[in-house]
Amino acid sequence: MTDYVKAVEIHCYLCIIFCKRGVEGIYKISSFLTELMYRDNIIDRDKIDSCVYGIQITVANMINFIIAFSIGILSGSLVEIALFYGIFVSLRFFCGGYHAKSYGRCFSLFALTCLGYVTMTNEIQRHVGNPFWLLSTAIIFLGICIWVKAPIEHTNRPFTAEERKLFRKRSIQLFLAWSAIGIVLWVGRLERLSTGFACVFVIIAGYMLAERGEKN
Fold first, then answer.
1. Percent of the chain clearing pLDDT 90 (strictly above)
2. In degrees rounded to 5, what are phi and psi of residue 99?
3. How far apart are CA 144 and CA 170, in angstroms?
């Protein structure tokens, strides 16, 4: 069985589990935990909605973590997925970008993104190799997106003026740090990993371009 077929199977399986049961579970868990905290006077009534949302995001991130590493394990690309997850999550947190309108769509889109990343990395390695122009083009592409658009404000999470400045600064710092690591990997001839850098940079840029939120 090929890596691609394995990844497709796990993607379908995870979508069925998380989209049908996980979404309902997120709402139930977040409401239950928030109610407990309110009863124990841990939070005030006016903080209930914010707490529910925060717990939902935490649980959703845990599910996305499971999705990513399940695909990585079953496709034989665990190291590449770990790299993807670290870059994707850290940059997305500060840069912003497209967000699905429901948790079910979010899980499906993220699973497809992981699957697309693994497939793209494998195909590029097979047919193109690891030319420096590939990595450098991806760095320039994402760099332009970050410079022009970051941080992108989401309607559910508006920024204060200070947060906007901080998130923009962190976006640029993380981008430069990850870019330097990618170049080091290319120089060290770690071809699959440096190709993975190029692919995840393009994916993040695509998410940023797809979101019509407020820019800095």
1. 45
2. -130, 135
3. 15
Amino acid at 132: F
**Are 85 and 44 in contact, with CB atoms under 8 Å apart?**
no
Residue type, 15: C
**Residue located via tokens 């407990």:** 36
Strand partners, 214: 153
Closest of 89, 93, 42, 92 to residue 68, by C-alpha: 89
- Contact assessment for residue 207 and residue 150, using Cβ atoms and an 8 Å cutoff: no
DSSP 80-97: HHHHHHHHHHHHHHHH--
- Whether 216 and 150 have beta carbons less than 8 Å apart is answered as yes
What are the Cα distances from residue 15, in Å, to 143, 199, 208? 32, 23, 24
Of 114, 121, 146, 96, nearest to 199 (Cα)? 121
Bridge partner residues of 153 (DSSP):
214
pLDDT tens by residue, 131-143? 899 999 999 999 9
Contacts of 144 (CB under 8 A, 6+ apart): none
Q: Summarize pLDDT for 31-88 with one digit per residue, the tens.
A: 777 887 878 778 787 777 778 777 778 888 888 899 999 999 988 899 999 999 999 9
Residue-wise pLDDT tens digits, 119-129: 999 999 888 88
Nearest of 112, 100, 176 to residue 142 by alpha carbon: 176
Please report where in the chains the tokens 């499971």 appear, as a residue. 66
Say if residue 131 is preceded by a cis peptide, omega within 30 of 0: no
With beta carbons less than 8 A apart as the criterion, state whether 174 and 90 touch: yes
